[in-house]
Structure formats: C-alpha cells, structure tokens
Amino acid sequence: MAIIIDGNTFTLNTNNTSYIMQADQYGYLIHLYYGEKVQSAPYNLIVYADRAASGNPYDVKLDRTYSLDALPQEFPFDGMGDYRHPSLRVRDEEGNYGCDLHYKSHRVIKKEPLKGLPAMRGGDALEITLTDDQIDLDVILTYGVYEDVDLITRSVKVVNHGKKITLEEISSANLDFVTGNFDVITFAGRHANERQPIRQYVDHGRYGVYSTRGASSHQYNPFMILCDHETTEYSGQAYAMSFVYSGNFYGEVEKDQFDQFRMSMGLHYEYFSYPVEHDESFVAPEVIMTYSHEGLSVLSQNLHQGMKKYLIRDPYQGKIRPILVNSWEAAYFDFTGETILNLAKAAKECDLDMVVLDDGWFGKRESDNMSLGDWYVNEEKLGGSLADLSKSIHDLGLKFGLWVEPECVNEDSDLYRKHPDYAIKVPGRRFVRSRNQLVLDFSRKEVVDAIYEQLIEILDHVDIDYIKWDFNRCIANVYSDDKDSGKMTYDYVLGVYDLLTRLIERYPELLIEGCCGGGGRFDAGMLYYTPQIWLSDNTDAIDRERIQYGSSFAYPISTFGSHVSAVPNHQTGRVTPLNTRGNIAMSGSFGYELDLTKLSDEEKAEIREQVKDYRKYQPLIHHGLYYRYTNPLKDMIDAYGFVSEDKEEALIFATETRKIAGVQAYFVRIHGLEKGCLYQDDEGHVYDANVLESVGMPLRNTLGEYISFRIHLTKK
Ligand code: GLA
Questions:
Q1: Within 6 Å (CB) of ligand 1, which residues are found?
Q2: CA-closest candidate to residue 242, choices 284, 297, 198, 289
Q3: Residue 63 belongs to what H/E stretch?
Q4: What are phi and psi for residue 567, nearest 5 degrees?
Q5: How do 274-276 and 165-177 pair as beta strands?
Q6: Residue of 218, 326, 328, 474 to test ligand 1 pocket, by largest number of atoms within 8 Å of CB
Q7: How far apart are CA 339 and CA 646, in angstroms?
Q8: Residue 438 C-alpha to ligand 1 middle, in angstroms?
Q9: I need a labelling partner for 271 at 20 to 30 A (CA). Which of 320, 351, 411, 431 fits?
C-alpha cells in the first residue's frame, strides 16, 4: 500500500522510500521521517526538552518541553514561535500577522490536477487539512505518491472561509531533519552558462537559490539537492526538490540553533503579497521530491523517469522526435523565403526531419529592436506567404517549425502603439528596457487573449509542426493595471500556462520547444507543456558539456534542445571536430544550428551518419538510465552513459575537455551495467562489467584537441 494511515500517523511508501508524519497530541502536524523504506514509524526520533529561549505554543499550556521552534514540522507557519523559515506567513484583515494551524481531517484520493498549474499526473494522493479556527482558514496539504519512481509531490491549497487575508509568503514543501551532516547542491549560472552545480557544506545560516525575475531564471534553477557530506554519484543519501513552476521562487536549506536542518521550496516572498477574499482559495504550485540512498545518479534517474512518465506532455511519445535545423545561427535576421527554402533543401540532403524559421519573419522585424507583438507575416521579406513557404518545405518531405515570443512587445510595434498599457510598467515611472523590449502583462486575460488570437490566425492557416516559444527578458517594474500588484508575478505565470494550455488543446500534435534566451526558464513547470527546451544560447560543444552535466541532475536528457553549430563557435570562437559536436549534441533532442548550405560534401556525409546514428540511439538516449561518470568541471574528460533498463545495452560518451601531454589513456569507470556479465562493443572487444566498474574502460589519448569517443555495448 502506498498510503498507510494508522491512527494519527500517515505513511507514504514508494518502492524504496518511506515518508512519515504524525498529527501529535496537540494537533500539530509533525514530520517524523523521510528516507530509505522502513517498517514502522520512528516516534522515538522526536526529543522533547525545555529549550529555554524557544517559546511554547498557547495550546500546550505550561509544557515547556514542547516548542515549534525545535520540533520537525510538515508545514511550519508564522505565529506560534518557530523562528526558522516558515511555509506560511499570513496577515488578517487588520494587518496582523500570524496563524495557528492544527490538524482537522484527511482523505485519500486519486490525485487531481491543480487548477491552472502544471503538476504530475496520476498517482494516489493524501490530503491533510489543517485549520486555523480564529481566522477560519483551511490549509490543504496534498501529497502525491509515485511508487514506481520513488517520487512524492507536495502542493498546498489555502481556502479562506473567514474575512479577507493576505498571503505574505507561502511555500509548497518543507522537510525538517532532526540531525545531519549535509552538503547542499544548487545550480547557478548566467545567460549562456546555465546550471553549473555548486556543492557546499551546510553550516549555520540559510543557503539558498531564488529568482525574482519573473521567470525561473538563468541565474539559479528551481531545483536543489541535500545530501550527506560523503555522498557520491553511486553511494550515500540524497534528497531533491524540484519546483513545478516557472516564475519567482526560492529554495533554501537552513541549519538551526540545535544543529537541525530545514529544506524548503516555494514561491518567492518578494513581489508577492496576495489578498485572498472570503470564500476564495489560492494554490501554491507543486514540488517534486525524491530520495535515494544509492547516490546522486539514482536520485537523478528517479526524477528523469518520473517526469517522463507522469509530467511531460509529449506528442512524440514512443516516436522519434524530429531532428531539426534552426535558422538562427544559420542566418540570424538576414534571410528571405529563398534562404529558408535552400536551408530546407540542404536539410533534406542531410536526412533531417524539420526546418525551423527562427526570429525575423513577422511585422517589420529586421533587428531585435522592433515588431515583437505583431504576429503577422512579413511577406515582403519572405517573398511570399508563410503558407507557401511551409508548403514548399513539406513538399520536400520535411516538417516546418516557427519561432515566437508571445510574452514580449517592442515599443516600435503596432501592438504597443495601440495598447501601451498591455506592457508591464508602473504608471508615471521610467521603466526598464531589456533587449529593447517590454514584457506583456500576461496576468490580464485580455492581454493573453489578444496574443492568442494573433497566434491562432497563423497556426490555423499555416501547416506548422513545431513552435519555439521564446522569452528574452525578465520582468521589472512590477505592476498590473487591473489588480493588486502583489498578485502580478504569480498571475503572470498562470497567464503563460493558460496560453500554452489553450494552444495545446487546439493543436494536440504541435511540438512546442521552450526557450528563454536559451535556458532561462528550464524548469519542471515548463516541461509539463514543452517536452524539450533550448538548453542554452551557448552552442559551444565544450561549454555545452558542462551545461548538460549540470542540467542532468534535475531534468531528463530528452528535454535538452541540443544542436550542432558551426566552428569557430559564435559564442566562444572555439574550434571542435564535427564528430565531437555531434556526439555532444546527441545527448538531448538533436538538431543543427548552422548554415547547411555552406558545408562540404564530406561534412554533409558525416552529418548523414550522425543523423542515422542518432535515430538508432534515440530510444536508448531518451529512455535509458543516465549515469554521470566524471565531472567535466574538474576532470579532463567528460563521460556519461545511457544504460537500458534491462541492462542489455549501453551507450557511453566520453569527450576530452582538456589536453595534457604524457597521458597515455583515460580510464573511465562505467557504472550501471549488470555485475558479473560480459559486454561487447561494436568492434568486437569484450569487457567484464566488474572490471569496467572497478578499473575502467581505457580510452587512448591521441593527437588532436577535444576528441570524443562513443562506445556502444551489448550484453553477451
Ligand atoms: C533567443 C534564443 C535564440 C534565438 C534568439 C532570436 O536568444 O535563445 O535561440 O531564437 O532569441 O532572437
């Protein structure tokens, strides 16, 4: 049984983990345990003691050994003496802070969708309702249980039966630990260098990541890992939280005065002050949690397999995703319809599946200073209609994709001239431009409607198989014309999800690739709608290895929009072999980002081979278990592998990231194969899985820079 209720103790079991909580003698919901699967609730972990400077909630009367400042809690709230980071901070109508939440009821249900928000599908769920009888507020905690992939989800719904309240802060997940010796791993970066892992020891204080930029951000990803200080890729305990949300967030670990730990994740409290009227409710988005006692690779595999199975909408389920060429680095703004058709012909010669027309096809868009918001075709530039171009491309036997940036507007656009109030800015204040554009106020339905109408006008009339949904700036100057500005950042994200939902419902076959100046909104929320996301605007193969490495901790490899680009690379000037660029881009949803018409016959032939190989290996890459073998931020070689779930087959990639003379061979230790078995590569070499794991696979160091290896193994 996944959900066991024994009196006032609630246990959530997955195949390998248990999560246990208890409504205690005072009705407070106490967290008892999360970790490797257990047979019984470990009540004795709770230590009651007079903690001097920590206060005692009113209901416990004179019991000085009971303090919420010390006890592990499921959903800590502000107002009864817990000074650590609360999950709920609420003000009543008079502006007074505080609440006091006690257990009220529970029920076991089939997990339901969250209205307006992405969330994992299916699964059983436990709902526990807490209540504050003074302000008449119910807080419903929902726990989803996904036994087969060891995932547990959490979300929170606040239902206000009393007078108006204001939510000043609400988090979705909180994990308290009564002891530990932890490291926290977060993923930080910037535009063109996203999701670089940072591992640090957790000492007293708060360590965290956040975004107040309106999107989940290039700078910090809404994902974090807490693990034992000794945990490695293949051993040790680790916990993860992943936010199924694409806007402002925070994730944090705190070590408290008693050397206990609190890990939490939720909506960011800055730019958030959300009034909830009588009989209204508010939903805090879902957090996906997982635990592994077998190290970080298994932790990631739980997330990968779980997201693929229960979260990501994929119109290509069970099929090969189209291999595409994108026009951005091939032509930037400098193209006509003929340029795109020539690119399509070259794509056909290279055996690709799809051509994507990137930025520059609409309004009067000749540079990134104008026309965002005017989603009608620049026929003059294309030398014909978009429908004709699409038809010519389809006639070649290729699919056709289109770039859009629905959430933004340029001042130099018809939309802005007509509706300047649609753009987010504070009336009377000078505002922030970024890439010379503004963000549209998607928290207003009429604004979303206006963009929806423009987009369907195109999508209804042109044969389009894919769109690349971009978002190239952050929100500043938080304000909304028709509501309290404290609601704007959250309602904005709901507006984005609403438009995505409407498009998906209208065009169920449409493949949408997310993008945000590359990887600035790479999160589990977007993945619900867009099964692949452009990983980064940095297409340099060697930099990409590091971005792929960091991203792999949280997200399935199938979600990485990954392209082979030209050399010298446009972001770094680095020159890498085509074979290496191909190998690296294959770990993802594959494509090309270069002018194929300029390639030699030899290069085209090599691309045809890559395409053939990728088609052959895509099922293994997209559905196999992913193992990180080295750390490209430290090691000379970046190696990782995909092992089929039945361990019959494996595909290993290894690429030199640095070169030093005198190293004769790299030994890459291969994990995940079946112990005691022999494996054979495509050239007939036979390897013992035990030796591969304990000593490694030798890869000869040859002359040349950034050499890459790809080894396909089958069990003998
Ligand atoms: C962003 C995207 C790029 C490209 C440009 C077009 O930077 O990440 O891939 O689409 O916008 O303006």
A1: 328, 358-359, 368, 403, 470, 472, 515, 517-518, 534, 537
A2: 289
A3: none
A4: -120, 150
A5: antiparallel
A6: 328
A7: 46
A8: 16
A9: 411
Report how far ligand 1's centroid is from the alpha carbon of 534 (Å): 9
Active site residue 24: no
Q: Which of 417, 401, 410, 449 minimizes the C-alpha distance to 433? A: 410
Measuring CA to CA, how many Å separate 275 from each of 352, 405, 443, 493? 51, 31, 15, 17
Query: Which residue has the least CA distance to atom 1 on ligand 1?
Result: 517
List b or e across 295-316, with b for residues whose CB sees 16 or more CB atoms inside 10 angstroms. Answer: bbbbbbbbbbbbbbbbbbbbbe
CA of 180 to the centre of ligand 1 (A): 44
Q: Closest ligand 1 atom, CA of 358? A: 10
Q: What angle do CA 170, 172, 174 make, to 5 degrees?
A: 105
CA of 470 to the centre of ligand 1 (A): 7
Catalytic: 523? yes
Supply 660's token pair: 């030093």
Q: What is the DSSP string of 619-680?
A: HHHHHSEEEE-S-TTTSSEEEEEEE-TTSSEEEEEEEESS--TT--EEEEPP-SSPTT-EEE
Look up residue 333 and give its DSSP letter.
T
DSSP-derived 3-state class of residue 220: strand
**Closest-CA residue to 353 (of 583, 541, 606, 592):** 592
Q: For atom 11 of ligand 1, which residue has the closest CA?
A: 517
The identity of residue 276, as a single letter, is V
The CA distance from 305 to 307, in Å, is 6
First to last CA, the chain: 38
* pLDDT tens-digit map of 375-428: 999 999 999 999 999 999 999 999 999 999 999 999 999 999 999 999 999 999
